[in-house]
Here is the input.
Amino acid sequence: MCKTRGPEYSDGRIVQDTGNGATMRYSTIFFDLYGTLFDIHTDEDADAAWAALADALAEAGGEVGSLDELRRTFAQVAAPEFAVGGGDPLFEPDYQKVYERLVRVTTGAAADDIGTIRATEAGHETVGGGAAVAGAMTLTGREISEAAANAAWAFRRASELRLRPYDGAHDLLEKLRRAGLRVVLVSNAQLPYTMPELEQFDLADEFDDIVISSDFGRKKPDPAIFRHAMVLAGVDDPSSVLMVGNDEHADIDGARGAGIDGAFLDTFGHGPYDGAVASFAGADYRGLLEFILK
Here is the structure.
């Protein structure tokens, strides 16, 4: 079928003409990640995950004691981040900050007057902006952040019992973008976990924009995160956006709250969802693609 050239995006891609002079209904597709594009199962209570975290902290010079002590320490350093939300169920804490606090606590780090982090070994002490004592390590703020990211990724990898893209996920995203559609990830997730996973499976570059709830501070189904994604994508009309997800409430109802249609992928076997404009059994990317491009 011959297709005429449609209106251009700023990056030169086009919205394909349907063949009858009308463009496709949707110009932008939002995707959930876990359970929608990734098949995942994790166990964050497993000793293996906490042992991996302990090893990563030790590499940064930290001392953690037993795994139970590490669990308690993690809960303690996470508490201030959760407190920011004031009990709001749609507040999303930032685990990067939690892991940075964890690195500081387990290494005995303290900020001096010039913004350098001095982490002292057992038996030594660093006070204020004075010179470091013998045997002390000097860690910049950047090094603290890197150590935190490494610790987070070590924990995440060890907690994964299963992680893989559903068959056809890459192909789906590529075909949508080739058709001129803007593709945006909108995920309830933690940045230090999700970005390495996207890179691991070469998916990071398949999205025009990536919105992670821990970075935004709010999570689905809050309509605010969908509106934020629209702003990033340069979209003014919510009726031109389709949200694809596997969670009836977070993905479909949340999107509807922002005026966005939802397509439901029933990867958990819940059955079709009446609140969606389309429902598909499992990760039926072929059916989804036909629905979007029709």
Observations:
- The chain has two domains: 28-37+166-293, 47-160.
- The longest strand covers residues 160-165.
- Residues 28-37+166-293 form a domain with the Rossmann fold fold (CATH 3.40.50.1000).
